[in-house]
Amino acid sequence: MEFTFVSGNLGLDLAGTVGRRRTGRVDLLATPADLARWTVAAGLLDTEPAVSDEDLARTAALREAVYRLASAARAGSPFEAADRELLNRAAGRAPAGVRLRDDGGLERTGDLEAALATTARAAVELLGGPRAVLIRECEASPCTRLYVDSSHRRSRRWCDMRGCGNRAKAAAFRARDRRDGQGAPAPGRTTG
């Protein structure tokens, strides 16, 4: 199982651990071990924290609240009070600790609650700040990932060019190729 961090915000990356929300939902945080691995892959902690089934359920609730809040921001709709309160509660806890080691490297420490507090704070800063208007949803079907469009012209269409963007462009090429194949022969070919 591979995690991707292409949303431009850690809160949106957490929301992105559910793929294909409208068709064939895929949950990348299906087990406590998945969530523990995600905290390290996200760069929140250096070592995997202990995670219980209850922690996983609490994280899933936070993830869904972030998704709904970001979707509301994207649509220009008001935030649901319960989602806002859940996010604020998580953001109000102590974040993951960071420390500069003797060798100049960075050390990230804490438990799952600290990792989630850091993630929730990132979501609060996005949703409550000027970049909230830049939240987009990937245009590639069936992807439903939300991301921050920080492109120069604000014209980014896909969550990730290497994945969804590549697949969308390849599909468009195949569709054009099929259309061209039904009409006139390709240049350099003769019929009959």
Structure description:
- The chain is mostly helical.
- It has one domain (10-182): Jann2411-like domain (Jann2411-like fold).
- Helices cover 46% and strands 9% of the residues.
- The chain has 6 helices and 6 strands, in the order αββαααββαββα.
- It has helices spanning 10-15, 32-41, 53-75, 81-91, 112-127, 161-182; strands at 18-19, 26-27, 97-100, 106-109, 135-137, 146-148.
- The strands form 3 sheets. A two-stranded antiparallel sheet has the order 1-2.
- Helix 3 packs across helix 4 (81-91), helix 3 packs parallel to helix 5 and helix 4 (81-91) crosses helix 5 (112-127).
- The longest helix has 23 residues, at 53-75.
- The chain is globular, with a radius of gyration of 21 Å.
CATH architecture: Orthogonal Bundle
* Arithmetic mean of pLDDT: 89
Task: Name the CATH superfamily assignment.
Answer: Jann2411-like domain
> What's the number of structural domains?
1
Number of helices: 6
Strand content: 5-15%
Shape: globular
Domain Zinc finger CGNR: 135-176
Region (Disordered): 172-192
Pfam families: ABATE, zf-CGNR
InterPro entries: ABATE (IPR010852), ABATE_dom_sf (IPR023286), Znf_CGNR (IPR021005)
